[in-house]
Structures
1.
Amino acid sequence: MPLYEYQCSACGQRFEELVSVGSPPPACPSCACAEVTRILSSVCGRTSDKGAEHQFAPGPFPTSMGCGSGGGGGFS
């Protein structure tokens, strides 16, 4: 099961949750709202570009997982 990071659309709470592939997104643990957005955590990596050695990926990267999105889990 992958560990995903979410942000609640109602209260803004960020949380992590272990979610089975194909399962619907979890409700917010703070306010129980079902409209949450899956976000990708920022990552740091090395590149071969000498000028970009200390650059970080700009995050978070929202992926809509709210009501009516179809829950496809793809990146938009």
2.
Amino acid sequence: MKNFVHPGDNVSFVAPYNVTSGQGVLDGVEFSVASTDVAAGATGQGVTRGVFTLPTAAVAVVRKTVAYWDNAARVVTNVAGGNTKIGIFQASAATSAGAPVKLIPVI
């Protein structure tokens, strides 16, 4: 196929703040997990598919429920309002414990 560019599992992003490897990043409407440390304003590479343990908000989360990115707090949560849907929690987790999230690209 002549117009195929790449699978899209790894994408570039412009860091909205200083980002560390493994940290979630929302660039426009696209969420990814940073592959390396990236300075604010610089371009980095992020992963858009897979399961990653991400820090959670101060709420208990339940396995196989929708995970949302709270961009202000830079954590995942089960609260939809004002947040961006990023995937599905793969395990339950207590308050602020961090939880595995299967990333599912959504528009």
3.
Amino acid sequence: MKPADVSVPADQHVTPPWDTQYPAQPLAQCVAATVRRYLDELGDSEPTNLHQLLLEQVEKPLLAVVMEKARGNRCRAAEVLGINRNTLRKKLQQYGL
């Protein structure tokens, strides 16, 4: 199977409000490379529930980093994440953050 094209057009890059430089590698390419490496390391084993696993593995560090960059300000973090403040609060509790 041919690898999916996960390139991001230059006009679709989003600069986080706390950083004025674009990342060296677009997020989609980082995720794709990590998923490929994970699947390669599984070898002949068939993954199950990969979608849920990926969401869980990405969401906690995402929330932690955004909260750190927002200096603990939940309103700002929710804005950056594009989610409701109450949703953020629930997710932070869910992950013990």
4.
Amino acid sequence: MTATVDRVITKTAFVVRDADLTDGTLLVLSESPSELATPQLVSVRGTVASFSHRALADRYRLGPAGPYRAFEGGRALVAQEVAVWD
């Protein structure tokens, strides 16, 4: 999927925005850190998973739960590849 970076939470977690997404935004998690900024255009490839901060925090170095509350129990994209368009 290709979308605009809406918010950067950490180097391994960010939110993208696209009109084709059901809620308009989607949380993206990556094991590889990325240097991202809003409103960069990114292409991400991965697998959709149910988001649980408790289950995923260590693996993706998410930090405190606060910024993720809106995504808890929802969907997140676990990215295998993140490409930034300049």
